[in-house]
Design goal:
Helix content is 28%, strand content 19%. The longest helix has 20 residues. By secondary structure, the chain is of the alpha/beta class. The protein has three domains: 77 residues, Archaeosine Trna-guanine Transglycosylase, Chain: A, domain 4 (Roll), CATH 2.30.130.110; 129 residues, Ribose 5-phosphate Isomerase B, Chain: A (3-Layer(aba) Sandwich); 225 residues. The protein has a seven-stranded parallel sheet, sandwiched between helices. A four-stranded antiparallel sheet has the order 1-2-5-8, with no helix packed on it.
Length: 509
């Protein structure tokens, strides 16, 4: 029995389902709901608390999450076998729930030990990046990183590492349009990220995504912390690797000169991500991260919510918090784009949740989205940005990205995120160089099983051991500590060398 003294959670008085927080056997009595389980119900899954007729609406969080595909009796397990997607008119009422933020007085705002760059941006790590312009230069970029003496960084203790930024695009695509624009925007955003002290740009020579064009977009001049080279003009692979190694060795002494200093938390831009979700994600980890997001915003910082395909069905909750009509309209325009995009490709947004999500108790995208939006907390939605666009607005903002974790986080980092908080119920393993990732577990069973991967256990919320507020405060403190240099679990494990994944949209030629 959990600390609440009950094996289920009721999330809203209007709901006609409750959530099992432990495995329920057949004939298990749930006195507080006056029901008896008619069949086994796994932890995280839903149990009907009242009769639901076929095509009847199913509510969780006080919101519509689907409809019954057959008649459901009290005590029955509610999942994919008897529940499906439903379309309904949503109340957008732009700005109706938007409230002014109660900021923490400047003299009381939190601080962290950050890395202040010449342009005023603040980093949380100090890497050197080797960036491939295209797939044809990706292996050479990786070879350069691998060719460096493994002990060389011991001579430069203020450098966190050298990472190759490689991908599978850059050629075989039109020289105009969304595909090349998204790729270049992402590469430019990463190259200019304050967590990089220096960048070596590696091109092939005949690709669509030419390094001269990229260099011009980046606005960097050749100096001790920026260099570029082409495989073809350098004389092939071996000569390019040697030139690349020499360039990195020249950067290391300069990069090592940085020193951390106390800066306000207003310099933090935190990307909010959830992946490998379960039914408890929307009850524990996501609301706790939402509380931490509110704290961050109140301290003058920025929180980025993303994954447009995974707020579908809950976008009205964000639109109602929009600071003005323009922001609300921008979000709705992105949702409509996704509806058209998926229809054009012969799929439905409800193809998400994934098999793992469903095993954890999530049934429809509506249900998943209601839980996912909880990461955003309660402050006003201040702006909406396109994929990998530079985030220039303080407070809670939204970035249009796919729900695929690798792509979503890549876009947020390109936009300037210098910390990532990643909630998971199934046990997603993820980390990204150059930006540290905190992993927040939604349930204690998974946390205990994968403690080497998880930074914080939010599952104790469902067990009644801590409150959402207490968990959110712990997350906010962990953000400050990690931004100051403390290694996250994913960093200790060495994640981050292969997670760079631009959104490959458009035609491959």
């Amino acid at each position: 029995m959990n600390a609440y003294g009950s094996p289920i959670l009721r999330l809203n008085s209007q709901d006609n389902v409750v959530v099992a927080i432990e495995d329920l056997e057949e004939n298990r009595e749930i006195p507080e709901e006056n029901i008896i389980c008619r069949e086994p119900v796994p932890a995280g899954h839903k149990v009907a608390t009242s009769p639901i007729e076929q095509n009847g609406i199913i509510r969780k969080y006080g919101q519509i999450i689907g409809a019954a595909t057959s008649e459901i009796q009290p005590g029955e397990h509610v999942h994919t076998h008897n529940m499906g997607m439903v379309e309904y008119d949503r109340e957008y009422d732009v700005g109706s729930e938007s409230k002014p933020t109660e900021y923490i007085p400047e003299s009381e705002q939190a601080v962290f030990d950050g890395i202040v760059r010449k342009d005023g941006k603040v980093g949380t790590r100090n890497y050197i990046g080797i960036m491939a312009s295209c797939a044809c230069s990706a292996s050479v970029a990786k070879f350069i990183a691998e060719a460096l003496d493994k002990d060389i960084l011991s001579d430069y203790p203020n450098v966190d590492g050298v990472v190759s930024i490689i991908h599978e695009s850059g050629c075989g695509l039109p020289d105009h349009g969304d595909g090349i624009e998204f790729l270049r925007r992402t590469l430019v955003g990463w190259a200019g990220h304050p967590n990089f002290a220096g960048i070596l740009l590696v091109g092939h020579g005949c690709e669509i995504n030419q390094i001269d064009d990229l260099s011009a977009m980046m606005g960097f001049e050749q100096d001790a912390l920026f260099d570029s080279l082409s495989i073809q003009s350098s004389g092939g692979t071996r000569k390019t690797i040697q030139r690349g190694v020499d360039a990195i060795k020249a950067m290391l002494p300069e990069a090592d000169k940085i020193r951390r200093q106390a800066v306000p938390a207003s310099h933090l831009i935190v990307g909010l991500e959830c992946g490998g979700s379960d039914a408890l994600s929307g009850i524990t980890a996501n609301p706790a991260l939402g509380y931490a997001s509110d704290l961050l915003v109140r301290h003058g910082g920025t929180a980025i919510l993303s994954e447009t395909s995974e707020v579908y069905g809950a976008e009205q909750l964000l639109v109602q918090r929009a600071v003005n009509q323009e922001v609300g309209a921008k979000l709705l325009e992105r949702v409509r784009w996704w509806e058209a995009y998926t229809k054009k490709n012969g799929i439905e947004l409800n193809n998400n949740p994934s098999p793992g999500n469903k095993a954890g108790g999530l049934t429809t995208i509506l249900e998943k989205s209601m839980g996912a939006v909880a990461k955003s907390g309660s402050t006003a939605l201040m702006d909406v940005f396109g994929f990998a666009e530079q985030v220039t607005t303080k407070g809670l903002v939204f970035m249009d990205t796919p729900g695929y974790d690798m792509v979503s986080v890549t876009g947020m980092i390109a936009g300037g995120a210098n910390m990532i908080c990643f909630t998971t119920g199934r046990g997603s393993v993820y980390g990204s160089k150059p930006v540290p990732t905190l992993k927040l577990a939604s349930n204690s069973a998974m946390y205990n099983s994968m403690e080497d991967d998880m930074d914080i256990n939010c599952g104790e919320i469902a067990e009644g051991r801590i409150t959402v507020k207490q968990s959110g405060e712990s997350i906010f403190q962990a953000i400050l500590d990690t931004a100051s240099g403390k290694k996250s679990k994913s960093e200790l494990l060495g994640f981050g060398d292969t997670e760079f994944t631009p959104w490959m949209i458009g035609t491959t030629l």
